[in-house]
Amino acid sequence: MTELDALAPSPDGVWAHENVVVRHMRGLEFDAVRVGSTVQVCHGLTSAEIGECLVPIVTAQARHVGLSQREFELVLVGIVRTTVADPVDAWATYYRNSLDELLSGTADFAPVHERAEKLVVGSVLDMGSCFGFFPLRLAMKGHSVTATDLSAGTMRLLATVAPHLGITLDTVVCDAANVPVADGSVDTVTALHLLEHVDAETGSHIVEEALRIARTRVVVAVPFETETTACHGHVRTFDEASLVELGRSSGAQFETSEHHGGWLVIDKTSTPQFA
Questions:
Q1: Separation of alpha carbons 238 and 225, rounded Å
Q2: Distance of CA 173 to CAs 48, 116, 132, 146, Å?
Q3: Is the pLDDT of residue 131 over 90?
Q4: 6 contacts: CB under 8 Å, gap ≥ 6
Q5: 206-248 pLDDT, tens per residue?
Q6: Angle at which helices 87-104 and 152-161 cross, to 10°
Q7: What is the model's pLDDT at position 270?
């Protein structure tokens, strides 16, 4: 598997990486097929149609075609890159549209970000930030924010696009179980829909690391699923009982709740309780 450079030059209307080829053809409906080992995607999406709204569309195709997590990611990148010719303009458009959808509540993930924003206090380090929409949201609201992710390419993309959005934040490439910052570096550490991507032992290490870094609070959100969503890279499921067990293992005050998935909030100091 080769490193993905989402900003690399490519011919207008065509993008290819590894076994995925995406073509933009005006007027076509979104369609994906597997031909041998190659995934071929054709679409006629406009610049107004690329954003978080793509996720359920691509997910439906992923289940139909049997996309792996890597293929899912490549298809999404290919759609963005073939819709707008200039790489930075393409991603700036995707980010603006996504933030608009998340802030307006039209994106599927909007309720998760809205609730998480209400739970954070002070400065924030976000674990497993991926594209970084949640750190961007917090930075827009005046928080000092550090986005972290294991993918160097994704953090490079976020650092490149953020100034074009007029947003300032820090980015760090690291494993969520080993973040290169000092103890008590920030007020809140968030891990939104991260733990379902790792096994239980790794997940426990991530929570321990979050508790080391946070001065005040750790906020964890997970999907409640009966089976894993493979194309999104999920390797385990969560329910209320497993969240309670994770909270108890922290040895600190905690609360669990359900709101578009499960929530675990661990408080290291006395802070206002959430509803």
A1: 6
A2: 30, 22, 12, 11
A3: yes
A4: 77, 80, 81, 87, 91, 153, 154, 157
A5: 999 999 999 999 999 999 999 999 999 999 999 999 999 999 9
A6: 80
A7: 55
HSE (side-chain half, CA atoms, 13 Å) at 89: 8
Query: 3-class secondary structure for 198-218?
Result: CCHHHHHHHHHHHHHHEEEEE
Residue 251 confidence (pLDDT) = 93
CA angle centred on 266, ends 214 and 258, rounded to 5°: 130
Cα atoms in the 13 Å half-sphere on the side-chain side of 234: 16
Which tokens sit at 47?
Answer: 């610049």
The position carrying tokens 């750190």 is 135
What does DSSP assign to residue 268? S
Give which of 68, 1, 2 is closest to 32, Cα–Cα: 68
Q: Which of 39, 27, 113 is nearest to 73 (CA)?
A: 39
